[in-house]
Design a protein that fits this description.
Layout lengths: L8 H23 L1 H12 L5 H25 L27 H19 L2 H16 L3 H30 L13 H9 L1
Helix pairs in contact: 1-2
């Protein structure tokens, strides 16, 4: 007859400790929505990025705590930077210019303007768009904002050029139809005699 393995008191104690830790963590997550957010962000993070991001967070928190402890003596304090970035952009110098074909860009611009028209005339959507655009500015650095501003100025200049061209066309004298028959001098002479 085979013996059933017996569960030792030590194994039961380890299980109880693990369950208590799990319960404690579950309570913390339920009571602290910020902790739940950081856990969710960690889970969403690419696995290769995790050690680096955690290292950055640990270093920054350690520096902040040290600064808080010494700010009176040193006369210097630190504060949170809401615009800080953990990822930096890298530009590939092997850019395939064919991806930016002039006609494709023009078509994309037309689509964007048509979508903009829809956004502008749906009040709820317009309000959400403005809020999202404003918040987006907090997530990019100043050089990126400067480029966006320059592109917007270019867009406004293109609009002004198109409006000026339309106005010039509207104010131009009507062109004569080349197919219309011109009155002959003889017809003019006959009209005077009768």
């Amino acid at each position: 007859m085979s013996k059933q393995p017996t569960v030792s008191a030590e194994a039961l104690e380890q299980l109880r400790t693990s369950l208590e830790a799990a319960l404690s963590l579950a309570r913390e997550l339920a009571d602290d929505p910020l902790l739940a957010r950081i856990v969710a962000a960690f889970r969403a993070m690419p696995i290769d990025d995790r050690p680096v991001i955690i290292g950055v967070l640990e270093r920054e928190v350690t520096g902040r705590l040290l600064a808080k402890a010494t700010e009176k003596a040193v006369g210097q304090s630190t504060h949170v930077n809401p615009n800080a970035r953990l990822y930096v952009r890298a530009h590939d110098s092997q850019l395939d210019r064919r991806a930016f074909d002039r006609d494709e860009m023009m078509i994309a611009d037309i689509r964007a303007m048509r979508i903009a028209t829809a956004i502008r005339y749906i009040p709820e959507l317009y309000a959400v768009w403005k809020e999202a655009l404003r918040e987006a500015m907090d997530h990019v650095d100043e050089p990126t904002r400067a480029v966006a501003a320059e592109l917007l100025r270019d867009g406004l200049a293109a609009i002004a050029d198109a409006q000026a061209a339309d106005e010039a066309k509207a104010n131009a004298e009507p062109e004569l139809d080349p197919d219309a028959a011109e009155p002959s001098p003889d017809a003019d002479e006959r009209g005077r005699k009768s």
